[in-house]
Structure formats: C-alpha cells, structure tokens
Amino acid sequence: xxxxxxxxxxxxxxxxxxxxxxxxxxxxxxxxxxxxxxxxxxxxxxxxxxxxxxxxxxxxxxxxxxxxxxxxxxxxxxxxxxxxxxxxxxxxxxxxxxxxxxxxxxxxxxxxxxxxxxxxxxxxxxxxxxxxxxxxxxxxxxxxxxxxxxxxxxxxxxxxxxxxxxxxxxxxxxxxxxxxxxxxxxxxxxxxxxxxxxxxxxxxxxxxxxxxxxxxx
Length: 217
Known about the structure:
Layout: H1 14-31, H2 38-45, H3 49-55, H4 59-86, H5 92-102, H6 106-109, H7 111-122, H8 129-138, H9 140-156, H10 165-183, H11 193-211
C-alpha cells in the first residue's frame, strides 16, 4: 500500500495551520474543491491571506493537505470501530451486523468530510490526479486494509472461509457499507435506524452465506 505524507508545511504556528485546515475543509466541502477561493478560506479561518500563505504554498497544496488529513481521520475512526467490534466475535452474524451498523457512524461524526467526498465525486474529472490518489489510498483503501486484517483473523479462528482477505473486505464493504452510503448520498439524507439495520443485516447475511465455512452451511 502506498504511504502518503502531508505536504511540508511552511513556517508558522502548528495550531494556526490546523485551524486553517479545519476552515479549508468547511470551504471545500461547501463551495467545491475547484470553486473554492483562497480569500474564502482565509475569511473562514479568521486570518489574512498572507498568513494563510505562510502555512501553505497555494490552494492546491492546501487541498491536498486537507484531503489527506480528513481521510486519515475517518480511516482512524473506522479502524477503532473494527478493533472494538471484531476483536472478540462470538456470534458471527450478530456481531457482524453490530459492526456493520457501527461502521456507518462516521457518516454522522464527520459531516464535513463526507460533504467533501460528495464534492470530489462531482468534480472528479477536474481534480489533480494526486488528490484522487491520496483520497483513495488514505481513505477507502486504508479502511479496506484494516477490515481485511480482521477478516483474516476471523478466518484463522475458523469462523470464515477466506482465501483473499482483501477481496473479502471489498465484498463486505460492497454488500454492507456501500448501500447505506449510496442510499443516503454519503450522509446527506440520513436513513432511519430501521432502514440502516435492514440494509446492514441483509448485506451481512449475504456476506456470511459467501464466506461461512462449508461445515457451518
């Protein structure tokens, strides 16, 4: 997996730089990645444009840093969810349903990130290739990598029959997580608890049907 690091910041207060990133996330999420303006970010952050430019070379560098930071925060949250729910599985289907529901929580906890995701989807053909690569690798692919690690452990306990953990993780996301994200437009139109549970439970049943060991079918 490719490892990405944030663009090297320019001299300035680290906290001020983080505050600018937080403000920039709001602006990119609201106005769009290609339509946002430096003056809008500066106004949101409550700093001058010259102060902003002491931290980031230009708007492109700021966008790259924001995408990296925001995607990494969500990936960390998803990793925590996976560690909490998949480390001690006793009832495979019930525990996977509980995990699948918890996996949706970042849609509520990181609303600006998912507004940014919607903007990325709308502007995909106009964004620098590096921004897309960073978002994919630090966000969705990192989350899939963490999930694959846990599925591999479950397979080692004989709870799943998994030959390729990465592919199995991709199928879990496709069956369980993606339908909620797509139906809710990445959290823009939140689903009810009942709708979320039904989608997740149906997806988990299909996943378990695919990967339950033959002896347990």
